[in-house]
């Protein structure tokens, strides 16, 4: 609802991997024009996540990757997950595929990684780790006996938020904090 546009080019084929990549990216946004005045509309924006990631780096005085690893991934037990692609076990990675000429699938020309977009787009994980993530996020904020976030915070993440008119979410979807919501006969579908 901040009027912040989405990323137009992630520059996957020219990744920046140094510790200042996110800071430079955020600094490059200084002349960015808002789509509308804050709270006048809504659209999905990965740039919003990049701004949040940089704020966390400044406040916490450590890299976003270290913060996420130490405060979220490790406590959940997500030992095969990282936001920092160079740390990923390459022997376990599946190459992404994209439509090639004539509609056939072809290996992507570059792995989709650029450290300046770690806050929105670079989690490398495993199916087992993602199950742990879902258990925390779609449950009460704990995993087994370990509390990751308060139960109230876990509920708040999935609570519908009122949004002004927007351009991105097809009906019947609604929005929560980082999640999309859709009514089904069996209950509300929570997805991203």
Structural overview:
By secondary structure, the protein is an alpha+beta fold. The strands form three sheets. The protein has a three-stranded antiparallel beta sheet, with no helix packed on it. Strands 1-2 form a two-stranded antiparallel sheet. Strands 3-4 form a two-stranded antiparallel sheet. Helix 1 crosses helix 2. The chain is globular. It starts with 20 loop residues before the first helix and ends with a strand. The model has no long low-confidence stretch (mean pLDDT 89).
- Main β-sheet description: 3 strands, antiparallel
What's the Cα radius of gyration?
Answer: 18 Å
Rounded mean pLDDT is 89
Tell me, what's the shape?
globular
Contiguous uncertain segments of 5+ residues:
none
Order of adjacent strands in the largest pleated sheet:
5-6-7
β-strand amount:
5-15%
Number of strands: 7
Name its key features.
alpha+beta; globular; 192 residues; two-stranded antiparallel sheet; three-stranded antiparallel beta sheet
Write a brief structural summary.
The protein is of the alpha+beta class and 192 residues long. It contains six helices and seven strands, in the order αααββααββαβββ. The longest helix has 15 residues, at 46-60.
